Fold this protein.
Amino acid sequence: MLNIALLIKKYSVPFIFGLIGFILLLSGMMNNQSMEFIFASIVILGSAIVSALNVSGKISSKVTKIIGFVSLAIAIVVLGFTFTTVQDTVKHNNDYKACKGLSIRNLRDVQTAQKAYLVKNQVYAADWKSLEKFIKEDSIAILDAEGSVPSRKITEKERDYLIQFDLYKKGQAIDNKMTELEAYYLSRSPECPVELVGFRRDTVNVSFIETTFSKNRSYMKERMDNGYGDFIATDLKYIPFTDKKAMWKIDTAFVVIGSDTLPTVRIAGDLPLTEIKGAPKKENMFFGKLDNSDLSGSWEVQ
C-alpha cells in the first residue's frame, strides 16, 4: 500500500502534465490549430516525459535541469511567435474590414456616378478617364421646387386660361383636382391664385461633385465617421489597400430587351486581403451585369 502511495506521489505531476500535453496535441491536430500551438503541446508532453524519467532515476537531475532550461527557452520563443501571430491576425482582420468597407463605399460612389452619367449621355462611361472628368467637371439638373399643388379643382376661368397650353378645350368638363402642370402655368398667370403665390417648379444645373460628394454634409460625415477620409475622385478607380497598383475593371456593353437596346455596365475586382488570413481564394467584388440592366452590387447579395 505504501509503495502504491509513493508511486502516485512521485509520478502524479509528470502524469498530469503528460495528460495535458497529450490532450492539447490531440486537440490541435483534430482542430487544425497553428503550428505554434502544436509545438507548444509537444514541448509540454516532452517536459512531462523528462520529468517522469528523472523521477524514475533514468536520467540525472543535472540533465533534467539542462533539458528543463532548454524547454523553457523554447516555450518562451514559441509564446513570442504565438503572440506575434495573434497580433498579425488581429491586424489582418482589421485591415480586411477596412478594405471591404472602403471598397463598398467607393463602388457605391461609382454606381451613383455611372447612373448620373447615363442620364446625361445615354450610355455608361466606358473608362475611368471619362468618368473622372464627368465627376469633377460636369453638372446635373435638379428640380428647384417651392410650394404645393392646391387640393381643389380649377375654376372655369382658370380652365379657359389653360386652353392656350392645350390642356383643355373650350367648355370642357372639369372632373379632377388640379395637377402639377396646371399649377405651374396658373402660378405664372396674370391673375395668380392666392394659393399659388411663390409656387415654383424650375430645373437648375448644379455641380455633380459638390452636390453629391464633396459638399454633401451627410455624405462627408459618413466617410469621416468610418475613417474613409476625404472624397477624391481620382482614387475611385483604385482597389483599396493595393498602394494604387490595382484598379477596378470597367466593362460596358449593349443588350437587346424586347424592342429596346439598353446600355449595361459591370465594374469588378479582387480584394487584396482574404477574410481569413492565409486563405488562398481572394474575394471578388463587383456591381452591374453585362447581360441586363441590373446595377446591384455583390455585397448586396447575402
